[in-house]
Design brief:
Radius of gyration of chain A: 23 Å
Order of helices and strands of chain A: HHHEHHEEHHEHEEEHEEHEHEHEH
Oligomer: homotetramer
Number of strands of chain A: 12
Shape of chain A: globular
Number of helices of chain A: 13
């Protein structure tokens, strides 16, 4: 029996569904994937992988958008009650939930695959036409939901590990699996990319399911992925009684309103840049000059260069707006992702492998349509900087025409098995 | 013994202090003065007054800035536990906490006095140099504090009732006492003024303690009191994904930012008008076009005419800003007070009475310096509209140079007895 | 001798250069091309064409951005002194400078060609490295300059007329030549397109020289041409003494400043729309509330639909900004052009003809790179609405790497002859 | 005959009217009062005064808002034709039109009086109900008009000189007369105050006619006069083609629009400050990112301290707005005046003297109502800084209820004689 047949036979659709539905019931948002990550670490260790987790795999200072300590603690406690493995959870305390797993299968190239684990803060639909509700695997964690498919990503990651461990003798090289926290808000990948885990990697790839792409379609290289950056800008002014002596205050809201208008008035660089002020929270009382304003914004660029260009303009507007009202400005990065350039050589390998799988019907080598963002791009850049090759794959998974990040989001579970097959075949092909 | 001597002897300083300190320990914010009001109603009834409370004394539609039903319920439950009288509390449910008390003492003029009862949402100082803390009558209600002296106002109201009931035979006319909720934010007086309780009143007066005015000083007619109005303006827009199709959104934050700048750019009418946008809350997510913005603002005028002028300009700015971004605008009045013109005849009576009291050293007939606001002015206007006479008195009460609405606010308790004496003497003088 | 040979031999490079340099010395801006147009009309009449000019060929109400009567008169007088033909100039008074010329050459298709005549208000370079200066044909009209190549366009139009008249017997159909005023600012084409001259036209084409395109290159169908619209928005407010009673004024400048910021803050529809406020003139005196503001802006869209979308948003901002400050708004269209979709069939003919001419080396059938604007598009739409076919051609004419609308602009005169040849060959090809 | 009688008899009403009407016919705006000033210098010299003019009496660097050299030259030429004295005009070239005249009348105090000479750029009314038109002394200088009464001020200044020279023997001290240019726009006084002419002055006073004050009324000390400052702020950005690469421009108009909104949004310091952006001129072409914006504004304060406070806030807004758009900012002072505190001792003298004159019926010692501005205040401060005494007088001169700076402005000529009398009597009184 050849390796391709072995791979195909080794994949268990039941496993995939069971695992995915388990993860779906216990969604954990970014940085608090304690249950998910500790279960993954346990299973991978049991399959013979060497496990790295906690601070050993993440550069602490490069984590972005960490929840406060109360939230970290609450989620940690709940994860424990919901079956998290305390053995691994200890090292994850405080939001160190990445898991790296390595398997040496002989001398040869080092190949990394990335899977994301985090859920979102959305209340899941409870109507019967929502499959997870109908099939009884709806979220048990009030207010949180896997509505971006990361439950599926994690499940295929585990199944890939199993298949790899079973076809180990056919591989010549090292397999590294990365289970990443906090992809939502593009907060979690950077700290892994600045750590050491990827230092020796020659190839890296990852995929994302897309509910907007037709089932059975695949884009081998998602080259339209945009660079993006997320920031919170805090204006620190000074309060004053608005009726009696407003001139003694430093009006943070006026500063933020001026910034908001001018940020949106920035040029679009012919459609290559965009910016959004998504939230503004300012003021303490109706009769007080607002002493503080928190402005949450994001920038986007068709490539990283454009994203940086628009950021620079944005920072200048923020700083001058603050000074205009004698306010101090504090800008905190809350997330970041690069634009993508997939390696043409891997694109060809992916194309070939997907053509061999009896599932994919529409195979697009490279596409620039999708204007989403992904912080896996940080890992791609890291590997490319070391002369490695990187690719980001899009998997069509439409089932009910519901968008990502909506309470009715779902994906077609049948995409999981062929995706597992694809990932393993790519590795085999590279190691040939 | 003449009536003045009787009044003087009848006043109990101990009572005043005990009552004030009791109220101080159980501060209740506007519209939820369930404990305070029900205790007051009970005591007044026991003194022989006819009591009106709940909807019978308040025009429901003219109440402003009512807390939500959850808060109303929470405070009601706590009041019950803290000694509120359920007999009266039933009618007060839902925020109907005004108390009116009438005592017929023979044919003659109908004289009304107003006392306010509400506290603020401020955590009281716990340092030993803060008298309520040192003397162990600090607030027992976390987050709430009597830091404007209304505990004292309510205590003198009760003592006045007692004295009046004891010198009843010297009076020719009817005494009406009003214990008002929600003076803070100028929310509570209007609904009483549009009810029937004041319909037959010939004279009305009230006072406020001022920590900024020196002890033993009195301003008989506080004519500097400014008109003010409080509003919440809600911009209803539409969300859109900021990266993919921002043009489909209706950006409520851009509308609110434009409004904020233009509201502050309104002319000051030579210092007669002012406006403050005190709070702005907008947006749902960093990458979503903000679908909603809540802008809280207030206007002020040296008189009601100016307050209305600036409001009209403000509304125009708000409406056009909303339309500019295809947003719907909803403006809700959250409070209101008029400017004051005290009746010169009562001013003279107050001046005469305060001169006769062995306490007041600095007696100012009329003053325009204080630019605060008071919704007692609604009651004054109501009485004046019926050809009655009205006055608002300022009582110097400085003890520690701390401003109103601060966590260290306090007033000199020794002002309570002379204020009781003054209020009763004014009534006696009018009824002569 | 076949017709192609005849055409080639008939063209006089000397004529072209002489005519072009004559026009170059007497530049006339939009709507006052009295000398240019009357000389053209005279020559065309002498070649046997039937001439239409003045109101007979232009819909008066659809002219945009007409100079004031003083300017119209000044330019008319100068044109007379500089050799304009009063015979034709009379009908052109007041800015009716279009010239239409028709030549019946037998039954067959009616083919129209458009040439523009107007110059710009720019002072021409006088340095010796500027060819017109060195060769002594620099502008004699102070402040005005042919810095967009329309002098060349007009010269080739006249040469085409001559060639046509000479090969008339080879043609089966009618040739219509249009010499258009006021292409700069996209002001002049619309009024011709709404007139009757194009009612019966089956084919129409025109070209523009581009100094940014390499010499010997040609784009047969300039499909990147953007739609654009030009407007003046006047805010009519009311003055007031800024020190004494600013509140009595209606501040047109505040309205215009608010509009400016919000216009620039409009979304770019993913790069498909843009907007520029190019000028703002407001106010009368430093101490007066500005009673008036004139805001000049333009919109652009990658197609006409986008141009209209952004306009609608712009109008809403302008109207609401005006109302915000109690101003009246007056918006005047000052120019307009559509996006272009060239007819694929003519593109093929142009491609074939240009391949046959011994000059063009780089022949691009269709191109979307150039994001300029052209009001010839109005004529294209008119012809297409009548089931006719239309195309807009780009001719590479780089000589000194200077941009259009600069004082050093120039084009390579050697492009004129092959362009004449191309235009005539296209007609011959169509009439085959 | 006592001195008062002599003064009274010495005054010629005919002279006053003749001189005033002559000046009225030849109005000259600020810094180009060549005819007026040279005639005045000639007459004063002929009366025996020592004359200083040109740079000897003005600190060149402290002149503000000077016209350009073309305008300076045009006005100089016209002045020559209209009877200006070239003997004095030479030194005045370039806008040095102040005239100082001194007369030593024995040892004693040095008393200075100020008169302003400049007209405004307004076209005078030509209707018959406008007295200067009816009586044939309407402005002969198109576009310019004496519509603030400075023609009258200059006429009384000359008559005072004559009377002084006739009663010289009654005076013990030195009389200094200052004829000031460019009072309009508060541009001319500062440079005289920083020169040496006032160094030794013990007393200084001046007056202004007010068409809004009833005839026969006088305010001895105009203490309501506000401080004011005038500035031009130029934003230097960079142009760019708005359609092709707007991101390359530095948008001066966006900077100026942001500044305009934020300048108007500054607090009013309880009505003590105000600010007006009176003019904004920006942009070159509709399709060009505006490379420049000129913003003309003024600040006002109820006293100089407030004027400086609001200026500092304004500068900060201007600088940060400029930096926000990568623009350079250039702020030029265009005028300035201080607030006034008149010396109480001179007020008493003026009161006494005006009571003795058979004309003034309503005599107000000090008044704060008038909120105009005057740069004579610079001279007052100079004299006060040297322990001298200063006062600014208001003379009621209403004749037709028309405001200053309107085309129908006029003043009652009958106020001139009593004003002359007053000024001389004050000097006599001081020198007693």
């Amino acid at each position: 029996m050849d390796v391709n047949q072995k791979i195909h036979n080794s994949i268990s659709k039941e496993n995939l569904i069971t695992t995915r539905r388990d993860f779906h019931q216990y969604p954990e948002p970014g940085w608090v994937e304690f249950r998910t990550a500790s279960i993954i670490a346990t299973k991978l260790r049991d399959l013979g992988f060497t496990i790295q987790t906690g601070k050993s795999i993440m550069e602490e200072k490069d984590r972005m958008g960490i929840p406060n300590s109360e939230e970290l603690s609450t989620h940690w406690q709940r994860a424990l009650l919901q079956g998290g493995n305390p053995e691994f959870m200890e090292a994850m305390k405080g939001g160190f939930t990445a898991v790296g797993a390595s398997l040496y299968c002989g001398d040869g190239p080092i190949i990394a695959m990335r899977f994301d684990m985090d859920a979102l803060e959305i209340e899941e639909a409870s109507e019967d036409n929502h499959l997870p509700s109908q099939k009884k695997f709806r979220s048990k964690n009030k207010r949180f939901m896997h509505c971006c498919g990361h439950d599926g990503h994690s499940a295929i990651g585990l199944e890939i590990a199993k298949v790899i461990s079973e076809i180990k003798e056919h591989l010549k090289g090292t397999i590294k699996l990365i289970f990443q926290p906090a992809e939502e808000g593009v907060r979690g990948a950077k700290c892994i990319s600045t750590g050491k885990f990827l230092d020796d990697v020659d190839y890296i790839y990852a995929c994302h399911f897309w509910s907007q792409m037709p089932l059975k379609s695949i884009v081998c290289g998602m080259n339209g992925t945009m660079a993006t950056s997320k920031f919170d800008a805090i204006f620190h002014g000074a309060p004053a009684h608005a009726g009696i002596e407003p001139e003694k205050g430093n009006n943070a809201l006026l500063a933020a309103a001026t910034a908001t208008l001018n940020l949106h008035a920035l040029p679009s660089f012919k459609g290559n840049c965009s910016l959004n002020v998504g939230k503004l929270i300012s003021g303490t009382g109706r009769n007080i000059v607002p002493p503080k304003a928190i402005l949450s914004f994001e920038t986007r660029g068709t490539n990283t260069k454009y994203d940086i260009l628009i950021q620079e303009r944005a920072f200048q507007i923020l700083h001058t707006s603050a000074t205009m009202q004698n306010c101090q400005l504090e800008v905190t990065p809350m997330g970041s992702a690069k634009s993508v350039e997939c390696n043409p050589e891997i694109i060809q390998i992916i194309k070939k492998c997907s053509e061999e799988i009896d599932f994919f019907e529409t195979i697009t080598p490279s596409d620039k349509e999708n204007r989403g963002s992904e912080d896996f791009t940080f890992m791609m850049e890291k590997v490319k900087a070391n002369k490695g090759k990187a690719c980001f794959i899009g998997i069509g998974a439409n089932i009910n025409n519901q968008g990502h990040h909506t309470r009715q989001f779902d994906f077609a579970e049948e995409v999981m098995a062929p995706t597992v097959e694809l990932f393993v075949k790519i590795a085999v092909e590279i190691m040939k």
